[in-house]
TrEMBL record, chain A:
<feature type="signal peptide">
    <location>
        <begin position="1"/>
        <end position="21"/>
    </location>
</feature>
<keyword id="KW-0812">Transmembrane</keyword>
<dbReference type="GO" id="GO:0006487">
    <property type="term" value="P:protein N-linked glycosylation"/>
</dbReference>
<keyword id="KW-0256">Endoplasmic reticulum</keyword>
<dbReference type="GO" id="GO:0008250">
    <property type="term" value="C:oligosaccharyltransferase complex"/>
</dbReference>
<dbReference type="InterPro" id="IPR008814">
    <property type="entry name" value="Swp1"/>
</dbReference>
<dbReference type="Pfam" id="PF25147">
    <property type="entry name" value="Ribophorin_II_C"/>
</dbReference>
<protein>
    <recommendedName>
        <fullName>Ribophorin II C-terminal domain-containing protein</fullName>
    </recommendedName>
</protein>
<feature type="transmembrane region" description="Helical">
    <location>
        <begin position="232"/>
        <end position="251"/>
    </location>
</feature>
From TrEMBL, chain B:
<comment type="function">
    <text>Subunit of the oligosaccharyl transferase (OST) complex that catalyzes the initial transfer of a defined glycan (Glc(3)Man(9)GlcNAc(2) in eukaryotes) from the lipid carrier dolichol-pyrophosphate to an asparagine residue within an Asn-X-Ser/Thr consensus motif in nascent polypeptide chains, the first step in protein N-glycosylation. N-glycosylation occurs cotranslationally and the complex associates with the Sec61 complex at the channel-forming translocon complex that mediates protein translocation across the endoplasmic reticulum (ER).</text>
</comment>
<comment type="similarity">
    <text>Belongs to the DDOST 48 kDa subunit family.</text>
</comment>
<dbReference type="InterPro" id="IPR055459">
    <property type="entry name" value="OST48_MD"/>
</dbReference>
<dbReference type="GO" id="GO:0018279">
    <property type="term" value="P:protein N-linked glycosylation via asparagine"/>
</dbReference>
<feature type="transmembrane region" description="Helical">
    <location>
        <begin position="425"/>
        <end position="447"/>
    </location>
</feature>
<dbReference type="GO" id="GO:0008250">
    <property type="term" value="C:oligosaccharyltransferase complex"/>
</dbReference>
<dbReference type="Pfam" id="PF23358">
    <property type="entry name" value="OST48_MD"/>
</dbReference>
<comment type="pathway">
    <text>Protein modification; protein glycosylation.</text>
</comment>
<keyword id="KW-0732">Signal</keyword>
Length: 287, 459
């Protein structure tokens, strides 16, 4: 560093130029924001300092024009640099864009920009962007790059911010399938109440029958005259219901059908005998 | 005999291990007038990594990228020709065909002379743009080499780039500065996800035509980080095309140069390591992914029998397990692939559109691969689904895996039984009460004695 400065000073001394001429800088710098339709001196205007940025951000609204004017200097003499940029930089996203000054031979420079000149990505930034002045040229002169103010880009909240949708490879949002709701049953208490109602129909029916005089008084007589047919007939009916229960819980059709055929044969044979006995009782006038 | 075989095998492995994952035939296209010897360190480095170098002049009659309709070379390195264009064997169409056939290309440019229009039209094919007059050079008054370019500031000193984004692997990072003399800048079209900048210019850099005086503001097309010093395209077949703005950065002179930034210390350049990273990436020595075993089966606690692995059919709402084995090639060997932080390897379970898109988690690691897996419930929709892993990331070769399976309904005997549904109890009770009533009725009908006689008697 020291060595380099020393050599540069030596070189400059040899070139018979003032040592201070090695530093690029500027003077008479102003930043102005001119609303649309306002006169030349309307709107915001502020002096810029070479060393310290403005404390408050400069706001640039929809149709405003931002104008930065300055006189570029090498050392203390006005001179035209090769590079004179107004550099806007968003420190968070790392975006940067430069606007070259229009520089005259005497160093008088100006740049104007509106929101239309800004890249779309800058319009949606929440934080003010850093506005820097970059001055540089060939040779050994020290270039200048400092923050001079911060620019806050004001958007009309009613106008949607234009966005750019560009395809970039990266992870995509996760998707978790939303399943249809599983079928639900009413509360068990309600179900049990209705089960109780349904099952209560059976004793109710039996009670009404008893009230009407239903009885099994002929059972001993029937069993006496035809014990086997009655036992088998009733047994086969109960067996049928048992078979249905097995089919409902575990058996398949191929197990059920042969069994049903066997029970059916028993029911047919024993039923015809048992019903013959019943007919005999009717013919005898007993029922 | 066995010793002999083992020796041969070792020899074979030794030659194979120092190679790119996609072949070793490298064609270098350079003008006869170009000093071949000024790049000798690069050539010996490439040969040391197992490449067979062939040097051809763009004007040569023998030069052809294809032989019998197939690629004659695996990789192509084009140095900027002094003459106009690259000749009839290297038209943009030939080079794009070469990319289509999985060949990799490095195209070096220089800002010393104007780039030919045939190279410019080749770059337009891949949406890389040069400056309008094709003779711009990047200068930066803040990051230049004070020893070699104290006046012109056209030797850029840049740090090696970090990862492009936080969720992307860095293949070009490292210590030290790299010198880029006479950079021809490129700008990239913003529409394509296949394009990626490898190295951007610093914010204070700009491009100008050295033949002209101070550039007028309207002549400045792009500045700062919009300018690319090195950019790359990885096509859908994972072939790589790299545009290097400064061919001089590969010269012997800059491999060993000492440079000094303004206000900096004198350091030696890291160009040689960076050239290794750049050629290694482009020629598929790094950033190459390989899929090993893919397994899916019903989720179980214990081991899965071989016949239950990768079934063709699943049922809706099945708890399913999926795993995929991924390896990454790093210069000469396959290593377990590690995801960068913030990135996800995602599994999609799709029928037309994804029903599930889930992050695969690394569950185990072998010597050469990482096994990523996840578990999920198949959606309540029957049809032809596929397990899909579509992993496309900048600088990594694409993984596109699609495995089709059928997802069927519940079978008739897989539903819950009616007694398990509390709402059905009323109907079951009704049924059995009817059966009970029927049996009682039969008994009463068979054995009931009439009461009419008693009534008649009492009357």
């Amino acid at each position: 560093m020291h060595l380099w400065q020393a050599t540069s000073i030596c070189l400059l001394a040899a070139a018979a130029a003032p040592a201070a001429a090695a530093d690029w800088g500027f003077a008479d710098a102003t930043v102005a924001v001119q609303p649309k339709g306002a006169g030349v001196n309307g709107g915001f205007k502020e002096q810029l300092s070479k060393s310290t940025p403005l404390s408050k951000p400069v706001s640039l609204a929809g149709a405003d024009t931002l104008r930065v004017t300055l006189t570029t200097q090498e050392g203390s003499s006005a001179k035209r640099p090769h590079q004179a940029f107004l550099l806007l930089k968003d420190t968070q996203s790392g975006l940067d864009v430069s606007y070259p000054f229009t520089v005259k031979e005497n160093g008088k420079s100006r740049v104007e920009l509106t929101q239309k000149d800004l890249p779309i990505q800058f319009l949606s930034l929440a934080e003010p962007v850093d506005a820097r002045v970059v001055l540089g040229s060939f040779g050994s002169s020290t270039p200048y790059d400092n923050s001079v103010f911060s620019l806050s880009i004001e958007r009309n909240p009613d106008v949607p911010v234009p966005t750019v949708e560009v395809a970039r490879y990266g992870k995509q949002p996760q998707i978790h399938h939303i399943f249809k709701g599983s079928p639900t049953s009413p509360p068990v208490a309600i179900t049990l109440a209705f089960v109780g109602l349904v099952l209560a129909a059976l004793p109710l029916l039996g009670g009404f029958w008893l009230l009407l005089g239903a009885n099994v008084k002929h059972l001993p007589a029937a069993l006496q005259s035809a014990p086997l047919p009655h036992a088998f007939f009733l047994g086969s009916l109960v067996a049928f219901e048992g078979l249905f229960f097995l089919y409902y819980t575990s058996w398949n059709l191929f197990q059920t059908l042969p069994a049903a055929a066997a029970i059916g044969a028993v029911a047919f044979v024993s039923g015809s005998r048992a019903l013959g006995e019943v007919q005999g009782r009717r013919l005898a006038g007993l029922r | 005999m066995r010793w002999c075989l083992a020796f041969l095998l070792v020899c074979f492995l030794a030659t194979v291990s120092a190679l790119s994952s996609s072949g070793s035939r490298l064609l270098v296209v350079l003008d006869e007038s170009t000093e071949k010897s000024s790049f000798s360190t690069l050539w010996s480095d490439l040969e040391g990594r197992g490449y067979d170098l062939t040097f051809e002049s763009p004007k040569s009659d023998k030069l052809s990228l294809f032989a019998h309709g197939e690629r004659a070379y695996d990789h192509l390195l084009i140095l900027p020709p002094k003459s106009k264009g690259l000749g009839p064997a290297l038209t943009p169409k030939h080079i794009i065909d070469f990319l289509d056939k999985d060949g990799n290309v490095i195209l070096a440019l220089t800002g010393k002379s104007a780039t030919s229009s045939s190279i410019s039209s080749l770059l337009l094919e891949v949406d890389v743009h040069l400056s309008n007059d094709r003779s711009a050079v990047v200068v930066d008054h803040f990051n230049y080499d004070t020893l070699s370019a104290s006046e012109k500031h056209n030797v850029l000193l840049l740090k090696r780039p970090d990862a492009l984004r936080s969720d992307v692997k860095a293949f070009f990072d490292g210590e030290g500065v790299v010198a880029f003399p006479n950079v021809a800048p490129q700008t990239l079209g913003s529409d394509s996800p296949l394009l990626m900048p490898i190295l951007k210019a610093p914010a204070t850099a700009y491009a100008y035509n050295p033949k002209e005086e101070t550039p007028a503001p309207e002549d400045i097309e792009a500045t700062g980080s919009q300018l690319n010093i090195i950019s790359a395209l990885q096509s859908r077949n994972s072939a790589r095309f790299t545009v290097l703005g400064s061919v001089e950065s590969l010269e012997n002179q800059w491999f060993t140069a000492s440079v000094k930034a303004p206000n900096g210390k004198k350091v030696s350049t890291a160009n040689r390591e960076f050239a290794k990273q750049l050629t290694g990436w482009t020629f598929k020595e790094t950033g190459v992914l390989k899929v090993g075993k893919i397994e899916h089966h019903l989720a179980t606690d214990g081991e899965v029998a071989a016949e239950d692995l990768n079934p063709k059919i699943y049922r809706i709402k099945n708890e399913t397990f999926f795993s995929i084995e991924v390896s990454e090639y790093v210069y000469d060997k396959w290593v377990p692939f590690e995801l960068p932080t913030g990135d996800e390897l995602q599994l999609e379970f799709t029928m037309l559109s994804p029903f599930h898109r889930l992050a695969l988690q690394p569950t185990s690691r072998t010597e050469t691969s990482t096994v990523y897996s996840t578990q999920f419930v198949t959606p309540d929709q029957h049809g032809i689904f596929s397990f899909r892993v579509n992993y496309k990331r900048p600088f990594l070769t694409n993984i596109e895996e699609k495995h089709e399976v059928t997802v069927r309904h519940f079978a008739h005997d897989e539903y819950p039984r009616s007694w398990a549904i509390s709402g059905g109890w009323v109907w079951i009770a009704g049924l059995w009460s009817v059966i009970g009533g029927f049996l009682a009725f039969v008994v009463v009908w068979l054995y009931s004695a009439p009461i009419a006689d008693n009534a008649k008697k009492t009357q």
